[in-house]
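tool=predict chain=A
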Amino acid sequence: MARLLGSLAGVPAGQVVDLRAVFCELLPMRVICDLFGVAEEPGRELCEAMQTVFSTSVSAQEMTAAQARVFGMLAELVAAKQEGAGG
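tool=predict ok
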């Protein structure tokens, strides 16, 4: 959560910020990633893919591609955990 709040701290005073896009949508996935010990970079990619999966404004092809990315990333993370690499 501190990382997400830190990104908001860099916004100049008086500038309008879409809190849903830069904080609320990312927070649940970031918490889940933290609980499972997923490193920052794979976690960011996973969050982006999950946002696409849950979006109501993407095409069926984009959603299918995002689902494949999510499943692929999760498979890689599980394999890394099984090998002891952490993920």
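The radius of gyration is 15 Å. The chain has one domain: 2-83.
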